[in-house]
Amino acid sequence: MYAGLCWCFVICFADCYARKLLINFVDDGLISSVSMVLSPMRTRMLIAVSLYMTIFVHSMPADERCAKSQLYRQVEEHKWPIVYSPEYNLSVLGLEKLHPFDAGKWGKVYHKLVAEGMISKETVVEPVEATTDDLLLVHTSRYLDSLTSSATVARITEVPPAAMVPNSVLQTKFLRPMRLQTGGTVLAGKLALERGWAINIGGGFHHCSADDGGGFCPYADITLCLKFLFVKKLIHKALIIDLDAHQGNGHENDFLGDDKVYILDMYNGSIYPHDERAKKAIRRKIELRSYMADEEYLEKVQTHVAGALNEFKPDFVMYNAGTDILINDPLGRLSITPDGICQRDQIVFEECRKRNVPVVMVTSGGYQKDTGPIIADSILNLWRKKLIQWQPASEHVRKNGQAIAKASHDEL
After folding, report:
1. Taking Cα atoms as reference points, which of 412, 394, 402, 27 lies closest to residue 195?
2. Signal sequence: where (predicted)?
């Protein structure tokens, strides 16, 4: 009976809904004209599939969605908890050059770590692309549907000419790499629990929330990583340490009013995004003046990172390590040296490691061509200081004397 009622609904609304779908297809360049109408039977089949996705897939319980996901894949013991794919890097018909973001910085980080002998192709972890099912754990279907509009993607990337590019190209050349990076952040969360720390060489899309993107951030990877951990009951309390030069309004809007998540956000108060609503989610807010230099900045990092950890006592730390704080960054407008960035990251890892709190680092913003090598230098510094080292999951459990909560094999 239920199926019959659904089919009646399909038939009644097929014409108007099909017209809407066709118009969307034309806007996205998938068909050339609304005159290319479908046959009545194909129209009804199309609507039936759409309704099925809306009723059954989009409304799937969170625990079922996580259990079904392939993002928490098993990682071989010999690999480092460093996540990267060559497909992170962007090349969108040259349009990436119209934005100050270095679209190849992730590859520069990876190649320098390899050149210095820290990791190799065989020891780095490659992520799985986040699927629509995965993303629906956080994002609204309306928002994900909006990404099929090239105009929406152009707004998010802040590259207006992208609105003229067929959406299929943007999906392949921009959104898919971003979904890979999003999957990388989620996997890094699992690895951090097993190994004590993890680094996703990409990710850190802190301007994207459940229902809106912006600032070159199309997916809410930080929120998604934490949601996976909470839904799977792997953690109870999470601390977000956001040290990108910009306010992290995406995850702040997502966790507004959530007592399980404590947000420390230290950012330049005079630049984008000025999101007053999101600021209400920040438990420890440090607004910096423009062109602040190393000494004052690092003193604040030390004081507030230690303070937040002592105050909240989290099970897990998500560290958004943007390098747009670098001196001469055109968007961050701070004056931190490369050595200052290394010291900043060292402080965060020292404070987390001495408390045995698992930490994930994501690389976030940075709008100069030398940010990739600087990120690599900072990771190498952590390695040389022995704040990050390779060890199998079993060894991490033995050394710390703690039960590492992780997904069972039948969930993987």
Report:
1. 394
2. none
